[in-house]
Amino acid sequence: MKKVHFVGVYGAGMSALAQFHAMGGGATTGSDRFLDQGKAGDIRKALEKTGVSLFPQDGSGISRDTATVVVSTAIEADNPELVQAGDVGIEVVHRADWLARIVREHKTIAVAGTSGKSTVSAMLYTILKTAGFSPSVITGAGLHALEAEGLLGNAKRGASDLLVIEADESDGSLPKYEPWLGVLLNFGKDHKELDELERIFSEFNRKCEKFSVNADETSLSRWMEGAVTFGFGPASVHAENLVVNPEGSTFSVEGVSFQIPLPGQYNAANALAAICAAREAGVSLKDSSRALEGYNGIARRYDYIGEAGGVRVIDDYAHNPDKIRAVLSAAHAQVNGGKLCVLFQPHGFGPTRFLKDDLVEAFSEGLAEGDVAWFSPIFYAGGTAAKDISSDDLAAPLRERGIDARSPDSRPDAGKDIVETSKAGDLVLVLGARDPSLPQFAKDILGGLS
Question: Would you list the DSSP string of 147-183?
Fold first, then answer.
């Protein structure tokens, strides 16, 4: 395999592709703005462990022996890496096109939808691996089981041709994939307006050899004809006897009992999606049940950081309205007589502007009386952006509704205030996407509470 250079390699999708290429024996290099800023040292170590050589984002990692440069939508045309690739005459391929090549080379299960993709992909990979199918995985969040092997956790090559991918719709590239099985979880506003999402998912549906759909989501009814469906109502794979408790949930499918070690009804639905897809791949319900009992989660998906002084700290990637509603509901079930203390860091000025009103509604509906919310400054990864919105544009409308919503000048200020405000019985929830420093921030809060 020829040398491939990945630009923006610290991004979840790009780091997974870089590792996957390196794990296949291909010479692999990469660069990222975070590398140049001296951030995310743990990510660097994990990438280098899998054979990815890292360079400054100045073009020095690209040479005449580089066969291809892979970029994401976030990389600007005047980036030094792209300029160097053009000067040397090297092929430049978009991230989605590179992943599409991999999808065609495997018997791929592509998990799509606006919420739950990472969790379902991880659960499905866990089921297939436990059942002895030796699958591969490319996803957006690190599986704790793979992190325990010293990997970054969002990519692994298996011995079979089965591949599980998280199929992202955010940049409109989803229809590029032609998987053996497409899984559609839900349909809600995130990166695109709903009419644009409908077009994207419809094109994706036509590219899939087989299709699996969440029958409980009425908004997905247009894609159910000819599909295998799953749900807690009428469906091809029908679950019943659902019991949701603060630490997880139980249900049964055709007499086989399942125990899911994650809170929230949304995680029970995620598990059912994985069970359905695994069954299509030939895994028995009993084997799926056994695998999910031992499932130990993924990074930043209701990730338990620890407890100090009677206060629990949870880190989660929730960033769109549907995910925020779901995680706030799950967290309230775990509050032990206290309140929720929620830190939300919006990511990107464009996404915050696009989702502003919907985010305000999600927090307004999800926060209870006595809860406190901190909206830290918008995460900015670089590049061109109109900085005409701030976190206070989210907090101010909530304050007008009587909610204790604060917009501190900095994230460290928010962390200090959270530590001072939290009492025994409270639960601290750190929410936000893209920023690799958020898990450490959650750990710093736990340290402050200690």
Answer: HTTTS-SSEE--SSSEEEEE---TTS-GGG---SEEE
